[in-house]
């Protein structure tokens, strides 16, 4: 979601939660201790195997899929054993009146907005009156936020102080904090947590068949699978930590740490987290901002900020909104692939859409050493991911410089870029500038390579763009099918745009010759 930048001053503090114990009588969610002895043992064995397989370094490229069925199979077996503990979820909207009262009781003015369901977006905020561009529509004080700082002050504090992973992964800390509070019926944040979705549309909730829909888009499939593997590993790691660590004995979390509970907490954080300044005004911290996190995304600019004096997050209108219209905010310049994997949606008109392109200089290239040396001066690795962008300039400076070096012959490399003839920083930077070039011949190689590569990538899609366009419009298509089709449409537009751009670049070289 959006980012805050301003520093704040010390004011209010998050109210501590009620003391808690591990007994299932405190929470209405069934506990792991209620499983039979055999089920507990089977689950523990499966979790140990899960940790082992997920801790092996991930395979790259097509091999990412190779151990996925095994990981997925283990997770599904664990889920099956734990399924008897699934809590009964109430419909979300039942919780909204208490949520709004809680906000109002804590000083939030909700008179400009109303929580409403919007097709394709889930719930969102509707303007209850005409609002002008730049007008403030929401102010949420820090004391209502769930943050890494409030996690440290909660019963989780001792575990965070001890565990190295929690110290370096604020998003995981926040997820455990959220889950621990969800399990506590006395939690200060209960009205907020009750109003959260009970499940998400991120690929963590997809089955193996669903993930196959991303196969035409190899990079996104890799991202989704890596995310699945990471969350499975974290689950197995924290399950063991919670069972073994004496600091966890009194945590509600310990006896309710099912895979589904962890997936829910991680997904809630992933789709709603935001950066806020720390209480002492120093480093940014992560937090969940109640009600503000009901805003859905559109193209635009950041319009939320942190008011240091009020110690509150403030949000301003991106444009004029008339009464009854959905108030949308800008989450950030993310690609559809990033939105899909981290937020569970794809935005058809995404101005910031981009496609990841993995490129590398072959170690078998006789000029590998010369090219790598020049690339390192440009702070570019000889093998890495680049982006092709949506819009008028699909190729950015880093990709252009890489392709120019990649295409250089020995004469240019030696005469112009190595030894005594090694250029200064300004000349090196010129390699990133489309308006400056070494030779028409090298430029031609650059644009021809890109044209061929993008054409090959386009051909790898399993169906035509027209088929995907029709799928994306089908009212009865599942979210997964619709989002995957929309993702591929965006990717292919970027690839076609790149092919056309490269063709124009090549044509302009020929015109210059004349
Ligand atoms: C911060 S929450 C916003 C509130 C959310 N719709 C809800 O019902 O709680 C972010 C989630 O809203 C949905 N969302 C946000 N912007 C969207 C958009 N432009 N199109 C579709 N879904 C969107 C996605 O499910 C995303 O994970």
From TrEMBL:
Pfam hit, one: Rubis-subs-bind
Limits of the SET domain: 111-332
CDD domains: SET_SETD3
Organism from which the protein derives: Lymnaea stagnalis (Great pond snail)
Region (Disordered): 1-37, 417-444
GO BP annotation list: methylation
Transmembrane helix as UniProt keyword: no
This enzyme's EC code(s): 2.1.1.85
Protein name: protein-histidine N-methyltransferase
UniProt keyword list: Actin-binding, Cytoplasm, Methyltransferase, S-adenosyl-L-methionine, Transferase
One Gene Ontology cellular component annotation held by this UniProt entry: cytoplasm
Residue ranges, compositional bias (Low complexity): 10-25
Family (UniProt): Belongs to the class V-like SAM-binding methyltransferase superfamily. SETD3 actin-histidine methyltransferase family.
Localization: Cytoplasm
GO MF entries: actin binding; protein-L-histidine N-tele-methyltransferase activity; protein-lysine N-methyltransferase activity
Cytoplasm keyword on record: yes
PANTHER family on file: ACTIN-HISTIDINE N-METHYLTRANSFERASE, UNCHARACTERIZED PUTATIVE METHYLTRANSFERASE
Tree of life domain: Eukaryota
Enzyme class of the recorded protein, top EC level: transferase
Catalytic activity reported: L-histidyl-[protein] + S-adenosyl-L-methionine = N(tele)-methyl-L-histidyl-[protein] + S-adenosyl-L-homocysteine + H(+)
PROSITE patterns documented for this protein: SAM_MT85_SETD3, SET
